[in-house]
Amino acid sequence: EQVYRYCYGSKTTPGTSPGQSVHNFYLSKTSTADWRSRALISYQAPSNWEVDEPGKSQEWGNLIHKVLSEVFLPEDLGPVLDQYQSTGILDAQERQLLFDLIMEFLGRPEVCAFFKPGLTIFSEKDIVTPGGKIFRPDRIVAEGDQVFVIDFKTGVVREKHSSQMRGYLHLLTEMGWPSVKGVVLYLDEKEPLYVS
Asked: Among candidates 180, 178, 183, 188, which has minimal Cα distance to 154?
């Protein structure tokens, strides 16, 4: 059986003689494990993976979400993007690309209904459950007695989007909000997904 010596501390400390502050521990057994038995490796790339620039799709989606969280009316978009460009988050070409993409999105009849004057809008607000879980819908829009939970998506329609929305609707109903409806708005798809 091998015994390993492990030392820590300094050999000399002011006011002590050499070797006095060294502490020795003898390890009689060490355990190691092969990393291959502890790591799982996926051999399939995600469907939205940009091979030339991994992470670009997710970063782009996050950026679009962030911009939309700051836009309450279509005329807010230009100043919001100007701020992103002035702080170096976007260059001029990216700013124009985002402006064109989001203005086209905001111009859709099913989208512009949630970006008009007179609405009460809660953007990216946390909902904390009694158990301490935190949920954050992209937008809650109230117009009179009608309340809509809005979720923005940059990818393709997936069943988990409906499930996520049903969870938001359940939370708001339990909080006492009357007549709550859910809408998932896709930038890449023309048709919204309505959930009730």
From this structure: 188
C-alpha span between 45 and 167 (Å, rounded): 28
Task: With H, G, I as helix, E, B as strand and everything else as coil, classify residue 135.
Answer: strand
Tens of pLDDT, residue by residue over 19-66, are 555 566 665 666 666 655 555 554 444 444 444 444 557 888 889 999
Q: Identify the pLDDT of residue 94.
A: 92
pTM beyond 0.70, yes or no:
no
Which H or E run includes 122? strand 120-123
Distance of CA 103 to the CA centre of its chain: 22
Instruction: For residue 153, give every residue at least 6 positions away whose Cβ sits within 8 Å of its Cβ, in sequence order, or none.
Output: 161, 184, 185, 186, 187, 188
Coil, strand or helix: which one is 99?
helix
